[in-house]
Amino acid sequence: MDTQRKSSAALKEGFLVKRGHVVLNWKARWFVLFPDKLMYYKYEGGKKDSSKRGMIPLADSEITCPFLEHENRPLVLRLKTKSSEDYFLEACSREQRDDWANCISDAVEKLRVGDGSSEVPAKQRKVSSSLKLNNVNLSEVVDAMYDVHSGIHLTTHVEQGSSFSNCFSGSAVVDWLVFMNLALTRVEAVTLASALLEEGYVRAVGVRSVEALHCVGLGEQFLDDSTALYSFSENFKKRGSVKAETSLSAVELSGKVQKRGFLLKQGHKRKNWKVRLFVLRSEPGYLHYYDPSKDDLSPVGGFSLRGCLVSALDDSGVPSGVKGKVQGNLFKIITQSNTDYFIQAPTREEQAEWIEAIRKLT
Predict the structure, then answer these.
(1) For a tag on the chain, would you pick the N or C end, based on fewer CB atoms within 10 A?
(2) Given 2.60.40.10, 1.10.10.10, 3.40.50.11780, 3.40.50.10240, which CATH number is that of 138-251?
(3) Does residue 5 carry a pLDDT above 80?
């Protein structure tokens, strides 16, 4: 999985979650993009099995990104082959989804030009169903929301005896995003608002909105609902108390997302390796992991980073506590309660990035 191990012809590689063709379930696979095809591999234990692979031809394929018809999976792109076979692929973040779509689109375009076909103008390429949503600058959206004349209207709401000032409802945000042409549909507006929530530009301030942080899928945590309350992070002011906000799960999931990505984690009981979506949050510092095969994507585990120790493990030999034939790029986290977590990153660079990001929050 290291960069130096890549084939010279490989254009990009990494984990994506693919929907099956016969059984319509979602499974994490290791994808490698070549100039004329997209290969994907199954992981057995903690290592890529080159004999268990599939291939998607790219010639005359079409990309739709974002593909918003999977309600609980807003980070999906669709790849339609020349034979009209659809492949649905989910990335770990908006940035990764868009990068994969652009790289695949470039490869398809080069194949078209190489075959002598006339180049299709960029504005006619089916890369995205919404270029506005695909290329949106979140900080610019927030600036527009703050605008005194055309921005979103701040009000005071009372919910279950608690008063919230300088806030707005989820449906008001969706209405505003569509009205300002920052999103073409309400579904796209929810995806965009969820990105604002994940990046910490807005935060949940009421019972319904706080519960949604850990009761719905990642990327769709923002509610298009008049009873779901949100506020600009800087203007978060609350009088009274809301029970849901003081629960452990709500508090630990309320921090700002610092990093997210697919990593391999060793189980505590069976010691088997599974691909998990890891999300690193600050204030408070927590590391949660999710099962990407589930549509209702709530954390399957997580822990506080306070007092944790994190370190890289030597790839030569099998470190103590590690089972199976692992690919490499291992690191270990020891929690304050002395629980050990063994994790593999896809590349040496990502291993270093994750270790550095975690250490900043311990």
Answers:
(1) C
(2) 1.10.10.10
(3) no
Assess whether pLDDT exceeds 80 at residue 136.
Answer: no
Mark residue 14 as left, alpha or beta (left: phi above 0; alpha: psi -120 to 50; beta: remaining): left
CATH topology of domain 256-359: PH-domain like (2.30.29)
Name the region of 166 (left: φ>0; alpha: ψ -120 to 50; beta: rest). Answer: left
Model pTM score:
0.64
- DSSP conformational letter for 235: G
Q: 311 and 355 in contact (C-beta within 8 Å)?
A: yes
Question: How big is the chain by its Cα radius of gyration, in Å?
Answer: 22
- Quote the CA–CA distance of 330 and 342 in Å, as a whole number: 7
**DSSP 8-state assignment for residue 11:** -
